[in-house]
Amino acid sequence: MEAFHYRQHRLLAEDVALADIAERFGTPTWVYSKAAIASAFDEFAGAAAGRRVLVCYALKANSNLAIIDLLARRGAGFDIVSGGELERVLAAGGDASRIVFSGVGKSRTEMQRALEIGVRCFNVESESELRRLDEVAGALGRRAPVSLRVNPDVDAGTHPYISTGLRENKFGIAHEEALRVYRLAASLPNLDVLGIDCHIGSQITTIEPFLAALDKVLELVDSLAAAGIALKHLDLGGGLGIRYDDETPPSRAALLQAVFERLDRHPRGREFEVLFEFGRSIVGNAGVLLTRVEYLKTNADRHFAIVDAAMNDLMRPSLYEAWHDVLPVDASAPREAAAWDVVGPVCESGDWLARGRRLAIGEGDLLAIMSAGAYGMAMSSNYNTRPRGAEVLVSGDKAVLVRERERVEDLFAHERRLPDPLAG
Ligand code: LLP
């Protein structure tokens, strides 16, 4: 069963009516389905059964503690990109030894903390970072486990802002530089060279780019072995796409199967533990943004539904022109449909969530912005001093609050009025 579905014209999250959630928690509110998150993760885990695989959840997609907690309990590892995300994993009960630390700009403090708690691996993205990590580890009297993120120069065929594996991107170490940087890594006294890592982009909807990247990685693994550098793991990153509109991404299992088949053709393919860093494909379709229509208005032939969620809540449409389906929470209304631009209250023309959607709506109606579980709340801001919405996790017929709605006073709690010497 789909996590979000209609029963007698009412839109439900599992067995809870979204209208009841709006009543209880207000709007805008993010609603997540526990079953959908669990089954997405379990599909990866099931496809990996019998192999040495660690599916790391990329926290950046949605870092709510309840979601981390539920994935930790199912055996997930975690892919983090900041000291903040690291603390979230620990706060949610996740295991440090299952954390991989990605990102191009790790600070000394972040490195120290990660070494102290004992993360599984640092995915290092440059020579300077490698030297810094060696120095920080040396000062702590520890050895840092590392993998180098190589840039396989593969076109993921996705939006340029979320494509990361091309030569011109800031990410990773160029393929032709990799051997030299690995030699350097192997020569530094406080590093343990464990693996190789790549991530070519996000919302990828075909298997081919993943396999092309894997081929490039395997080529490097062979040259490294010839140079006496033996690796233990391959981290193939994340990036599997989901259906927002009519995309037809491969299933999670099909992607893993294809990767394993390709690995099995390599003479030493079975020797490596395989890591993945999936974000969107675990939580994307498991969440919606529930919002209420405040006003309807028509300007120069365009119909606007002004809702109480905005670009500060869900940035994807304004940032990437991303498409999210919009569904009425009560589909029984006998109104006439028109083409609506669903927009928010923020003072920017770019503040829209959907455009030209045929909807039968009236003021006060509730709408669900679909597939908002990934890169929704996680990318939100307080622009226009808008408190961010609540987050609610549904399981069966239960709905629990997993993040309180912000209060306005929270938003300026860290600010000060003019102190005395500057006043007047
Ligand atoms: N690993 C690394 C190193 C990454 O940079 C990312 C995402 C992931 C894993 C997880 O990728 P996923 O499985 O979620 O595709 N804000 C954009 C997406 C940015 C993705 C950034 N990196 C969006 O809303 O579409």
UniProtKB/TrEMBL annotation:
GO-annotated molecular function: diaminopimelate decarboxylase activity; pyridoxal phosphate binding
Cofactor: pyridoxal 5'-phosphate
Orn/DAP/Arg decarboxylase 2 N-terminal domain boundaries: 37-283
SUPFAM superfamilies, A to Z: Alanine racemase C-terminal domain-like, PLP-binding barrel
EC class: lyase
Membrane spanning residue stretches: none
Annotated catalytic residues: 347
Listed InterPro entries: Ala_racemase/Decarboxylase_C, DAP_deCOOHase_LysA, De-COase2_CS, De-COase2_N, De-COase2_pyr-phos_BS, Orn/DAP/Arg_de-COase, PLP-binding_barrel
Family: Belongs to the Orn/Lys/Arg decarboxylase class-II family. LysA subfamily.
Classification via NCBIfam families: lysA
Role played: Specifically catalyzes the decarboxylation of meso-diaminopimelate (meso-DAP) to L-lysine.
Protein name, per record: Diaminopimelate decarboxylase
Organism expressing this protein natively: Zeimonas arvi
Gene expressing this chain: lysA
